[in-house]
# Entry
Amino acid sequence: MSTKLAGYSETVICPYNKCHVILKERIQTHLVKCARSYPNIQLEICPFNATHRFRAEDKARHMEECSSREIFDRLHYQVGNSVTSNNAPVAPSSQSRPRLQVSNDCEENWDHYDFPTYDPQNYAKNANVLRSVPLLQPSERRKFADEERKRLSELERRRQPRNHRRDDSN
# Structure
């Protein structure tokens, strides 16, 4: 059972102790702790949603009324697909486009290609990106920052067209 208290997001009442009103996003953690605190209360766990707990005698009613069952039914029974009610395949009309036939007998194997693996560090060295190195001493960070400035200025110099560089030297 969910309620919404003023100033709070949606809350749920604990099935082990009705005095426990828990935020909906915290109920799963709470149920684990509360189940340990109340070992004499035996509750069933809903197969559609692990945060739903109920007494064994209420199982049939819960299974019929469970709000999470709709999600399960849609996935399991594919409600809303283009199959007709008698589950017979729909015959293609003469006006419909022909379907592309995809073969599962693909001979392609990406392990046979001779490409080097992607190295993000190597890419970043040659790209105009700002790099950082965590967990360095202050002196090492300063040294790295100086090297980064030199690297970025060199990359910028290489990117400029040659005729612009000649104009700068005059």
Notes: Helices lie at 27-37, 59-65, 69-77, 120-125, 138-159, 162-169. The radius of gyration is 32 Å.
